[in-house]
Specification:
Elements: H1 2-14, H2 16-37, H3 51-62, E1 72-78, H4 88-101, E2 106-109, H5 112-115, E3 124-131, H6 140-155, E4 159-164, H7 175-192, H8 195-219, H9 227-257, H10 262-289, H11 297-328, H12 354-364, H13 366-381, E5 389-390, H14 402-414, E6 422-427, H15 434-446, H16 451-454, E7 455-459, H17 470-483, E8 485-492, H18 499-511, H19 515-519, E9 522-526, H20 528-562, H21 566-591, E10 607-608, H22 611-639, H23 644-674, H24 679-711, H25 720-725, H26 734-751
Parallel strand pairs: 5-10
Antiparallel strand pairs: 1-3, 1-4, 2-3, 6-8, 6-9, 7-8
Helix pairs in contact: 1-2, 1-10, 1-11, 2-8, 2-11, 4-6, 7-8, 7-9, 7-23, 8-9, 8-11, 9-10, 9-11, 9-23, 9-24, 10-11, 10-20, 10-22, 12-23, 13-21, 13-24, 20-21, 20-22, 21-22, 21-24, 22-23, 22-24, 23-24
Length: 752
Amino acid sequence: MAWQLFRLGRWCFRHRRIVVAFWLVLLIGVGVGSKTLAGSTDDQFTLNGIESTQAFDLIKARTPGAAPDGASAQVVFQAPKGQQLTSASNKAAVERALALVKTKDVVSVADPFTAGTVSKDGTVAYASVSYAKQAVDLTDADKSAAEAAKASGTKAGLTVAIGGDAFQSTSAGGAAEGIGILVALFVLVITFGSLIAAGMPLLTAIVGLGIGLLGITTLTGFLTLSSTTSALGSMLGLAVGIDYALFIMSRYQHEVRNGRDPEEAIGRAVGTAGSAVVFAGLTVIIALAGLSICGIGFLTQMGLGGAGMVALAVLIALTLLPALLGFAGKRVLGGKLRFLKARDAEGSDDVRTNGRRWVELVARLRVPFLVGGILLAAVLSFPVTKMQLALPDNATAAAGSDQRVGYDLIADSFGAGANGPLVVVVDTAGAGSGQQALDAVNTAVATIEGVKTDVVAVIPPAGAGSDATPAARQQLVKQLDAARYATVTVIPRSGPSDQATKDLVGTIRADLSDLTSRTGARALVSGQTAVGVDISQKLTDVFPRYLLVVVGLAFVLLVLVFRSILVPLKAAVGFLLSVGISLGTTVAVFQWGWLNNLIGLDVTTPVVFILPLLLTGVLFGLAMDYEVFLVTRMREAYVHGEEARAAVRTGFSHSARVVTAAAAIMTGVFCGFALGDDVLIKTIGFALAVGVIADAFLVRMTLVPALMSIVGKHIWWLPRWLDRLLPDLDIEGESLERRLHAQQGEAQTASV
């Protein structure tokens, strides 16, 4: 493989104009496509086959015009200080504003004065607006109407906020990428001591990021994608794009400093470091693409989108970077800054670097470092035992945003549960008496143990109460016979993401589990919290299967790369430590509120429900990146004749600086996203940043050399029968060296 990559790197160096032109044409092409073909993104987290969504499906099937899964908005009004909304002038202002909300896509607007959504003191009210379409399909006219309603109420002196999911938008934005690029530039300049050398990996990564994001944007015209797909793609595309080019660039610079001709230097760099890039990229792609086996649409989108960005980064590092170096030649050693020393990022055997000092210290105190590192990982991972998962809601929206203002006003005036009521859908199609089934549901929910502390109100359909008039109850019976279902609204005291509300979902389902045997009807519990509970359970169920498939495939790949059983096993165990630390610190910061102000979060919140599975996939791939880049240099030294423990020190010395730079760049990129406003992107960015720090510096650069120094040559053990079966991928470039030496010998003989 090294020989083929050697030839590829040299070909791209020679035909640099063709290669650069190809990538530029591709960039322009997807840019045009994104402008002409792009559609909208959909940030709704839905999943078929779970109870909460089955309730929506039932309502749509029985009453198609109801559109229960359409977008919704809450228009929240607050009276001026010292006034009430029930005054004639303020009431008229509210009604004028709500009249402006209506468009052809609006199914209903609940008047707060008749729906009972005015606070007891009369200062706050909210109107629920239901749309026939999902948020992704709402038009500019719908948005303009909502803005006009807000402007009308504000002009009348009221405080108006529009919450709900109708007009939310999640975007990676440009600030996060900008922070990542600035951090990367700083680290690259420090690493290479040269602006020219630093600029090469940055330029190729930006080209790859542009092609990838514009390509995803173009796909939105043909597929329904979430904006989180492009956000994750941005994180990974920028981070691995810079890192992969960094590894090849550092090897090229090292070869040129050692007197190689630039063309041969890039061939050797792509043949050796490029081999590591290919297999590092493959582990990330396997981990991300493996998310599709979960059968969950939005995770499949994110996984395949991220995998595509990583594949693009690998291709660009192997082709575009050699082409650009064909223009730069030996000038990558120039462009030095006065205050920096020009550096060989991979060091040399006769220079005692900080990396050399560190690995010698770890090797000398290998047992204390190994035990201490594992204990530290265990302590940092402990909060995982208290982790709670939930859907993101407006409680964590940016302070001052309409979603957050509306949420807080409703919570303060009506209780947090009013922001996420539960809906019990009673399917009466198989019931002998629909009224009897509905009465049984009302009684069961109203008499739940602890209902006074868990539930504010149980709101049955109009006419279902025991004090309803005979005419009202007769009208309800007719409605039940026609629609064959009814809905009961349950408003908890606790917020949508609180554990108490999740427990209430389970309690209601348990108490209504025998409804069919008693009445012939069935009850389906839905609502925001119920959806989160169901999806979280689904993710928990598929997690073992995902882990088995992804880790199994990656294990086989690493056995091929390192020709060892223990090295891949060590890599997998180290990854588990990194995931534990990442999730543990995320729980401590987001759920417990420890130092959460440092990342711009002013509330505590459960962990976003998709994080454990998504983090496992992404971080596993990135962890294997560092394993491949670090340990391949150790194996390279070992197969070239060094004693096993000495090879650990040699390989670490050559790769430590580059791995440190790569981890710093990746951490900077993820931190940029962690400082954004959207809680979903913030959580993913923070967890990945912590995971990279833990994996690169604690696991790969401390525990790995400590363990390898303890085990010695046995770390490279492989059964002989398996050694004969495995193909020789030549990641270390040993056969490449033999072929090049043979060619040089033939050339010298011919010249004589």
